[in-house]
């Protein structure tokens, strides 16, 4: 049975134009774990909980979670359907090429690939940075709030975290499969454990009226509608990275089924877990003003400390940090595979270097360490600008969702190019789900470029518009000036004789 599955996976990949270069060690369960780990409730919500408290407070935090989860599921369903038909490590940029007309496929693929890389790098940098803040907050609790980390200390911790996840990702596919099995369990258990303990030990509880209706605005923005809209960032940033299921498709058994199911289950489980995490912490919050002004630097750390005691708070924050480290591991895993696939089609500078596979480990080792260097560089602006982290989260959200939207839009414009769907198919609902997805992506792309604090100054400006615009315009100019002459989109690296051999091996296995 295993031989038949292996042969079918390799034949499907060959039909898509690629030979099997990576070892398939992931199962349906661990591919689902990849989505859970990259979304990572503990990472996104812990990092931006304080942001949520000042951009609308409890009322907006709970309401926005429902809204964002609802529309994110539309995007996830759209991506899962395409992924089922085209399960390759290239993911989104490959989909954009296959769903575009011949004269447009190179351009669509190029722009999708670069926005996806921007979003992935910013997303993982954001995870590492958030983890650095958590570690510093835990240290602050351990010293009875006498330790206040400097920006240099935060950046230093960030760099050490990036290096640690790069080292772990250099240990090969078997280690990866074990890590993902553990991470899948950790991502589910940790948020529930934190909520249960905090609720059980909290000396007082907030009322349901407070949790679901209290509106707070410390942004300096007068418009409630504006505050509510920018408050969506906390939830939308958390729902990021589920495209990682596609980027590890060439390392997943029965990828045309496992990867799309991983995307949907990852979003669904995260929606449930995240809502419980949010309301559990809001019910347990002892003092809003003290939480916002926490000397730990993190609202969640202050809530846990106020509701429990020092040893319990250190224990729970340590669990939270472990959970977030797994998230960073999974993010760099997906990011390195995306760099590998994009380089396989000669779309990056020094593509041969990033496309190389380590002969013994059978992983894109160089791509892994390139990603690590980029994460470290993205932390440096924090040394001079305390709002750099919020900008990184906006960049990650915008960059990734633009890359999610392009192939979905291509499918809408060229339905005839999606004549043979995979096992996961939306049927008659496909077009409706795709339209809603594209519209939602357009909305959040505009929203998260808006200022989230007033008045706008050099240290409070949302630099996402600058950086996303730089990548978008830069990618467009490079394509127009140079890449259009040599970049042709995804390039097949398997010939007909190799395809015949795979067909013969499949028949033999049967």
Automatic annotation (TrEMBL):
It comes from Rhizoclosmatium globosum. GO terms for cellular component: membrane. It is found in: Membrane. GO terms for molecular function: transmembrane transporter activity. It holds the Pfam family AA_permease_2. Gene3D superfamilies: Amino acid/polyamine transporter I. The chain crosses the membrane at residues 29-51, 63-96, 117-141, 153-172, 179-200, 220-240, 261-283, 313-334, 365-383, 389-412, 433-454, 460-481. Keywords: Membrane, Transmembrane, Transmembrane helix, Transport. Coiled coil: none annotated. This is APC amino acid permease. It is a multi-pass membrane protein. PANTHER family: AMINO-ACID PERMEASE BAT1, OS04G0435100 PROTEIN.
């Amino acid at each position: 049975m295993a031989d038949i599955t292996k042969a079918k996976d390799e034949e499907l990949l060959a039909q898509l134009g690629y030979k099997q270069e990576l070892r398939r060690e992931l199962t349906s369960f661990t591919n689902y774990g990849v989505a859970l780990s990259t979304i990572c409730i503990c990472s996104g919500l812990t990092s931006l909980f304080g942001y949520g408290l000042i951009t609308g407070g409890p009322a907006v935090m709970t309401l926005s979670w429902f809204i964002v989860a609802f529309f994110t599921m539309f995007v996830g369903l759209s991506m899962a359907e395409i992924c089922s038909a085209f399960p390759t490590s290239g993911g989104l940029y490959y989909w954009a090429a296959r769903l575009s007309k011949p004269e447009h496929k190179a351009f669509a693929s190029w722009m999708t690939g670069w926005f996806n890389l921007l979003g992935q790098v910013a997303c993982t940098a954001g995870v590492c940075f958030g983890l650095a803040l958590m570690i510093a907050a835990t240290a602050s609790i351990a010293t009875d709030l006498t330790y206040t980390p400097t920006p240099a200390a935060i950046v230093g911790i960030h760099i050490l975290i990036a290096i640690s996840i790069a080292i772990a990702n250099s240990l090969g596919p078997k280690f990866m499969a074990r890590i993902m099995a553990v991470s899948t369990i950790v991502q589910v258990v940790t948020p529930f454990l934190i909520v249960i303990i905090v609720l059980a030990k909290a000396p007082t509880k907030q009322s349901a009226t407070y949790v679901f209706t209290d509106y707070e605005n410390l942004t300096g923005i007068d418009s409630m509608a504006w505050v509510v809209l920018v408050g969506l960032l906390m939830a939308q940033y958390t729902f990021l990275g589920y495209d990682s299921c596609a980027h590890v498709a060439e390392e997943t058994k029965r990828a045309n089924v496992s990867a799309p199911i991983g995307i949907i289950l990852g979003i669904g489980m995260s929606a449930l877990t995240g809502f419980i995490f949010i309301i559990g912490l809001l019910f347990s919050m002892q003092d809003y003003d003290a939480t916002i002004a926490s000397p730990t630097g993190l609202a969640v750390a202050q809530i846990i400390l106020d509701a429990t005691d020092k040893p319990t708070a250190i224990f729970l924050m340590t669990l939270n940090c472990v959970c977030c480290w797994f998230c960073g591991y999974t993010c760099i895993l997906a990011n390195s595979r995306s760099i590998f696939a994009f380089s396989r089609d000669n779309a990056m500078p020094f593509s041969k270097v990033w496309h190389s596979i380590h002969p013994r480990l059978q992983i894109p080792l160089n791509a892994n360490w390139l990603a690590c260097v980029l994460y470290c560089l993205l932390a440096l602006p924090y040394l001079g600008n305390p709002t750099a982290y919020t900008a990184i989260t906006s960049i990650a959200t915008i960059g990734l969702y633009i890359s999610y939207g392009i192939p979905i839009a291509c499918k809408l414009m060229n339905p005839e190019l999606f004549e043979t769907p995979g096992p996961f198919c939306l049927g008659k609902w496909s077009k409706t789900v795709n339209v809603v997805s594209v519209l939602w992506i357009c909305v959040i792309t505009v929203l998260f470029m808006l200022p989230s604090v007033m008045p706008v100054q050099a240290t409070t400006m949302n630099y996402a518009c600058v950086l996303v615009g730089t990548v978008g315009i830069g990618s467009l100019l490079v394509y127009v000036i140079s890449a259009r002459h040599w970049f042709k989109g995804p390039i097949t690296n398997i010939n007909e004789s190799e395809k015949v051999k795979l067909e013969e091996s499949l028949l033999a296995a049967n």
